[in-house]
Design a protein that fits this description.
199 residues; alpha+beta; 4 helices
């Protein structure tokens, strides 16, 4: 766990789990989550395999600049990185597994915002893995929302085997503008070009 808040919610999930594969979704009690509720969320995997927010803390809504209830989890991700994110996140429900993401938002004319996201699966009373609990903890200035992230690292832990693996820089950040530019042919007297988250 790279952030204390992630360790806290992981401990809560493990206590509910009690040696089983995963806790039941009905065992989640918001009253026991007061210390991390503002960065916490509950996800639902729908019949069409969309993963949507059922509940989300205020800090997540602040990052998006809107109420996120009913929105897809992929809405937090940069559009050109969403297909790969979708392929990874499905394993939370299908393997099943725990996933911890390292994220970065680097939009033009906006301060860099880094984050850590933890996702922990939950089972229904009928035996389906169709819910998950998690949290998104960020460091930096949110700036003007919405902020959208790229994945720089993903740690996956199978609940069946207990084995973990880490994929680094699976969605590298786009190239950022620099001060360097191609050298133009010399022209006499030519001006020199001068070089920013519920129920």
């Amino acid at each position: 766990m790279t952030q204390p808040i992630l360790a806290e919610i992981r401990t809560y999930w493990e206590e509910l789990r009690g040696g089983r594969l995963m806790p039941l979704r009905s065992e989640i009690d918001p009253r026991e989550m007061s210390s991390f509720l503002e960065v916490c969320f509950v996800l639902e995997r729908t019949m069409d395999t969309q993963i949507r927010f059922r509940l989300a803390g205020l800090e997540i809504s602040d990052i998006m600049g809107m109420e996120v209830r009913g929105m897809t989890l992929r809405s937090l991700i940069s559009p050109d990185a969403r297909d790969q994110f979708d392929a990874q996140i499905d394993a939370v429900f299908e393997t099943p597994e725990i996933q911890e993401y390292k994220l970065v938002a680097q939009e033009r004319d906006a301060p860099e915002l880094v984050g850590n996201m933890l996702i922990l699966p939950l089972k229904s009373e009928t035996g389906e893995t169709d819910r998950a609990i998690g949290c998104l903890s960020t460091q930096g200035i949110v700036g003007t929302p919405p902020r959208r992230f790229r994945v720089t690292e993903l740690q996956r832990t199978s609940l069946l085997t207990g084995l973990s693996e880490t994929d680094r820089h699976i969605q590298p950040a786009p190239e950022t503008a620099s001060f360097a530019e191609a050298q133009a042919p010399y022209q006499a007297q030519a001006p020199h070009p001068y070089l920013r988250v519920v129920k």
